[in-house]
Design goal:
Blueprint: E1 6-11, H1 14-25, E2 28-33, E3 43-47, E4 53-58, E5 69-73, H2 77-86, E6 93-98, E7 101-107, E8 113-117, H3 119-125
Parallel strand pairs: 1-4, 5-8
Antiparallel strand pairs: 2-3, 3-4, 6-7, 7-8
């Protein structure tokens, strides 16, 4: 059996990124290690509701965005889009037909692309 256990995302500020993912996308904090990680600058371990852990590891050098992306299932992509737009977020792409199906594209604080979708919209409009 092969199963993805965790994913690491390089960030410029692990505390700010932790707060962003928790407050805007609903991840929960599994654990934190201030001063942890390869650069010794800090790591936050976040979990989605299915138990996948995402490590937000702070690095000292420049963070290269756009080299990878995450696809995140949300409860209602259009409702999340409306809520985050009302909070002043700028989306890369609003909910609509994408090459991968129906959803929206948002960048996190370091520019990592997040493909957001919900199952009902994907099936009906994808």
């Amino acid at each position: 059996m092969t199963k993805l256990d965790h994913l690491t995302i390089a960030v410029s500020d692990w505390v700010a990124s932790r707060d962003w993912y928790v407050n805007h996308l609903g991840f929960t904090v599994e654990f934190e290690v201030p001063g942890g990680g390869a650069a010794g600058l800090g790591v936050a371990a976040l979990q989605d509701e299915n138990g996948l852990t995402v490590f937000l590891e702070q690095f000292a050098g420049p963070i290269l965005s756009g080299q990878g992306s995450c696809t995140i299932e949300v409860g209602d992509v259009e409702a999340l889009f409306a809520r985050l737009m009302a909070q002043g977020f700028a989306f890369i792409a609003p909910p609509g037909k994408q090459f991968w199906g129906y959803g929206a594209v948002l960048a996190d604080p370091d520019g990592h692309l997040l493909h957001l979708y919900d199952t009902a919209s994907m099936q009906a409009k994808g």
